[in-house]
Amino acid sequence: MFAIIESGGKQYKVQQGDVVFVEKLAADEGASVEFKTIAILDNGKVATGNPVDSAKVVGTVLKNGKGKKITVFTYKPKKSEKRKLGHRQPYAKVQIESINA
Q1: Separation CA 101–CA 98 (nearest Å)
Q2: Do you find a cis peptide bond into 90, omega within 30 degrees of 0?
Q3: Which DSSP state fits 1?
Q4: What span, in angstroms and rounded, lies between the C-alpha atoms of 88 and 65?
Q5: What angle is formed at CA 15 by the lines to CA 44 and CA 38, rounded to 5 degrees?
Q6: Nearest-CA neighbor of 36 among 58, 60, 17?
Q7: Strands 90-100 and 45-48
Q8: 0.70 exceeded by pTM
Q9: What angle do CA 22, 70, 87 make, to 5 degrees?
Q10: Residue stretches of the chain with pLDDT short of 70
């Protein structure tokens, strides 16, 4: 059984037991979260909708963290104007516990 969930403006294909990295959630480590379900695929039967009314995907937050640092450098040629920034994108590591269709 597969499910398509939405979190942080992105869509993920998950099944029970998967570990996914999603955008930062407002939940502590060990907390249970429910995702908006867009589609369910179960033994050749497909249920779609936004959201699917009878479906429920539940996961547990394993970790809240930040990704690797990226460097953002902007400049304007011939103007002596430059700027160097760093960014670390926050994420939540979530394990999918159950998919109820």
Answers
A1: 10
A2: no
A3: -
A4: 9
A5: 70
A6: 58
A7: unpaired
A8: yes
A9: 70
A10: none
